[in-house]
Design goal:
8 helices; mainly alpha; Outer membrane efflux proteins (OEP); single chain
Length: 378
C-alpha cells in the first residue's frame, strides 16, 4: 500500500499534474492511497571450481572410511578366534569326560572282580581295598571332568551370545589335521596382504598424508564460480529479469602462522602412524614365526601323546590278563590304569593346544575368518 498524501503528494500537488489527465483533471474517484503487488523470484548457484585443501580432504575421507572398515573386520577376527577357542575347549572337556567314564567302568569291573575273589578266599583284602581306592579316584576324576565341562560350556554360550541356562552339547570330536609346510616368509607376505589391522594402519597413513597435503595446500589460491538469476513482477507492470555470473579467485593472505601450525600438527600425526605401521610390521613377523614354532612343537607333542596312549592301553590290557590269570596282584593293574588316565588327559590337552596354535597361526596370517576350516582340518 502507498499513501500518496503521506509521501508529499497532496491535493495541491495533484493539481499541478491535472493537465496530464484526460479532461485536464484527475478522474472521479481518484484515491490518494494506491496499491500494487510485487513478486520476486531468485535462483542462485555457487560452485567451488578448484580448492586444493578440499581435494586433499576428499582423499582423506575415503581413506578414513576404508580404515573404519578394516577396524571393524579386526574386531570380527577377534570374535572368531575367541569363539573357536571356547569351542575347542568345550570339545576337549567332553573328551575328558568320555575318558573318565571309560576308566570308571574299568575300575568298577576291577573292584567287582576283587570283591568276588576276596569273598571266595582267592585274593587278599588289600587287593580289594586297592581296587576300591582306584574306583573312588576315578569317580572323583569323573566329577571334576564333568564340572570343568559344564564351565567350558558356560564360557562357550557366553561367547556365542546364548543364555547361560540354555542346554547345549558338543557332538564333534577334537579335530586333527596336519598343515601344509609353510615358510615364515610366505606367511609374513600373506599377513601383509590379509591382516585387517595392517590394512587399517596403512589407510591411516593415507589419511594423514592427505591431511598434511591439505594443510600445505592452504597457501594456494582457490577459484569459485557464483551466479544467480532474478525475476521481479510489479502488478500491473511487466516482468523484469536480471542475472549475474562471476568468478572469484581467493588468495590467502596473512595466514602463514595458521598454515604452519596445521602443517606441523599433520606431520606429527603422520610420523606417529608411520611409526605404528613399522612396529606392526615387525610384530607381524615375530608373531608369525612364534605361531609357526608353536604349531610344529604342538604337533610333535600330539604324536608323542598318541604313542603314550597306545602304550598305556597295551600295558593295561597285559596287566588285566595277568590279574585275571592269577599270576599277579592288582597293584600293577591299578598303576596301569592311572598311567592310561594320565596319557589320555595329556593327549586331550595336547590336541587342544595344537588346534589353538593353528588358530593363532591363521590369525597371525590374517586368514582366520576365511580359512579356519582349513586350519582345523574340517
Amino acid at each position: 500500500m502507498h499513501n500518496l498524501a503521506a509521501l508529499g503528494f497532496g491535493p495541491d500537488s495533484l493539481k499541478s499534474f491535472s493537465k496530464l489527465f484526460p479532461g485536464g483533471k484527475p478522474p472521479a474517484g481518484f484515491s490518494e492511497i494506491t496499491r500494487d503487488t510485487l513478486t520476486d523470484g531468485k535462483l542462485q548457484l555457487t560452485q567451488v571450481l578448484f580448492s586444493a585443501p578440499a581435494i586433499a580432504a576428499y582423499k582423506a575421507a575415503g581413506a578414513a572410511e576404508r580404515s573404519s572398515y578394516y577396524a571393524k573386520m579386526t574386531a570380527r577376527g577377534e570374535v572368531v578366534q575367541q569363539v573357536a577357542t571356547a569351542y575347542l575347549r568345550a570339545v576337549a572337556g567332553a573328551s575328558q569326560v568320555e575318558n573318565a567314564q571309560a576308566l570308571l567302568g574299568q575300575a568298577q569291573v576291577l573292584e567287582q572282580h576283587e570283591h568276588e575273589a576276596h569273598a571266595a578266599g582267592t585274593a587278599a583284602n588289600l587287593d580289594e581295598l586297592r581296587a576300591q581306592v582306584q574306583l573312588q579316584a576315578q569317580q572323583l576324576a569323573l566329577i571334576a571332568a564333568q564340572n570343568q565341562q559344564a564351565k567350558d560350556l558356560i564360557l562357550l554360550k557366553r561367547e556365542i551370545g546364548v543364555d547361560p541356562a540354555q542346554q547345549i552339547a558338543v557332538t564333534d570330536p577334537a579335530p586333527y589335521s596336519e598343515l601344509a609346510a609353510r615358510t615364515p616368509e610366505e606367511l609374513r607376505g600373506l599377513a601383509y596382504k590379509s591382516r585387517q589391522d595392517y590394512q587399517n594402519l596403512q589407510n591411516q597413513v593415507t589419511v594423514y598424508k592427505a591431511l598434511h597435503s591439505s594443510a600445505r595446500a592452504e597457501r594456494l589460491p582457490s577459484l569459485t564460480f557464483f551466479s544467480y538469476y532474478q525475476t521481479s513482477t510489479v502488478t500491473p507492470v511487466n516482468t523484469h529479469g536480471n542475472f549475474v555470473a562471476m568468478g572469484m579467485l581467493n588468495f590467502p593472505i596473512f595466514r602463514e602462522a595458521k598454515v604452519r601450525g596445521d602443517e606441523d600438527a599433520a606431520q606429527a600425526d603422520l610420523l606417529s602412524v608411520t611409526a605404528q605401521l613399522d612396529e606392526l610390521r615387525s610384530h607381524i613377523d615375530a608373531q608369525v614365526r612364534s605361531a609357526l614354532l608353536d604349531v610344529n612343537s604342538n604337533q610333535k607333542l600330539v604324536e608323542v601323546a598318541r604313542s603314550n596312549v597306545d602304550l598305556a592301553t597295551r600295558a593295561l590290557s597285559d596287566e588285566t590278563d595277568r590279574v585275571n590269570a592269577g599270576v599277579d596282584d592288582n597293584l600293577p593293574l591299578v598303576t596301569a590304569q592311572a598311567t592310561l588316565a594320565s596319557a589320555q588327559a595329556n593327549l586331550v590337552e595336547s590336541l587342544y593346544q595344537y588346534n589353538v596354535s593353528k588358530l593363532a597361526l591363521a590369525r597371525a596370517a590374517g586368514v582366520l575368518e576365511q580359512q579356519y576350516r582349513v586350519y582345523l582340518g574340517e
